[in-house]
Amino acid sequence: MKNLYLVLSLILISTAIATAVAVDSESSSPTVCIIGSGISGSSVAHFLRSYSSSEIGEIRIFERHDVVGGRTATVTISGETFEAGASILHPKNYHALNYTKYLNLSVREPPPSESDSSFGIWNGRDFVFKTLSFNSNFPIFQRVVSFANSVLIFFRYGFSLFRMNNFVDNTVNNFLKYYQGFESRPVFETVEEMLKWSGLYNLTRRTLQEELLDFRLSPRIIEELVTVITRINYGQSISISGLAGAVSLAGGDSGVWSVEGGNRQMAAGLINHSDVKLHLNEEVESVSFIEKKYQLNTTKGKSYQCGITVVATPLDEVNIQFLPGISIPERKLQHTYTTFVRGVLNPAYFGLGSLSEVPQLVGTVETPDVPFSSISVLKQHKENDMSYKVFSRKPLDDALLDRVFSVRNETIKIDWGAYPHYHAPEVFAPFILDGQHLYYVNAFENAASTIETSAVAAENIARLILSRLTGQKPASSVKLKSFGDDAYDVHADL
Q1: How many other CB atoms are there within 10 angstroms of residue 159's CB atom?
Q2: Residues 314-371: pLDDT tens digits?
Q3: What is the DSSP string of 104-131?
Q4: What φ, ψ does residue 329 adopt, rounded to 5°?
């Protein structure tokens, strides 16, 4: 009889282990520790709370800096606040749109004067292309100039413009599959599986240039307009992977927007609404898996026991020790150097006679003769007083800035480890780092890096955690259904 009881007990134990990975022997609601308070980390916390009732216990978020938001940040120059990190969102970024409505944030769309601003492509010697510029408060004149510029662009690039738009639209339509309901959208355990399901995986196998040539785009539009966009949005050339390139080109669509007061408010709001214990200025030094729990040791000399740990920050430039060790592909971050200047551009630097001849957005082609990727006017305060944003791949020294600008009243320089350095074919880190409950949201960044792709990856990670905890797919709660349905209402309102 005792032997029979022992056999039955072993069978029950084996069945329990097979149903779900053991997480916390003391509690059915494990503590979740999230490393990073940007959009990825805050979104994981948000979706875990939205999708679960009792499966998740305490949530802790660790942030090594003194403010949340990660790579969404603002900078203040002469009392004016501007986006310093991730700056724009696409009109079909439905998670971000949902966040703004859920958190009662205001959407900032570019004013007509900004969307019709003059544009030029600089090759280091002269402008290979420039749109017309005409300052007028009369709408009819603005429409005439806008139409004339459309004609100019068409004459230079022809039907390749439409082919480029089709390429971007095809990619966006595939990406929209990630908003489907749980009934038709599986939980993904790997980045490759996630991309193949949506039809985006093959775009990570070849370069953007190869994809666009197959789409019958002309070499001129690829070397000029496409290159300008990829240099602005990802600081890289057309040799990036096709998917990252398509996402970059989508950033040039009309209707892009941002959050009034700064995009970082989304991360801050999600954290505030997710019943989270936030640890600011506390960097995680090590993560050790000991007796079915993760022990996190921080720079404050403290230790925390966690049933689940989520890494929501790029591991490329942080020094976290894992025990047992983990294995991920080597990846380098592309640093973007952002220089904010309150002053006036020097038209002579561009070979022009007056400031009015300098386009409000100066893009550049891929050549060693150009030390910056782009220069754009953020705000015109007076006729000869403007705020500018300059992107470059290397720091710009003061001697160079004094040649580019005739007046510099204030200068702020920021170094961003902004996104991965893309190449094709891409190799992806795993979502699950150890076969247990150590997750890596930023594995998806090798596909593309934006606020929305981070939210999409985080939503999948939340579902993955819950499905592996319970052995079932997470069901949509009433609260979630209402929240999700609003996405398309928000889009229609915009």
Answers
A1: 12
A2: 999 899 999 999 999 999 999 999 999 999 999 999 999 999 999 999 999 999 989 9
A3: TPPEEPPPHHHHT--EEEE-SSSEEEE-
A4: -60, 145
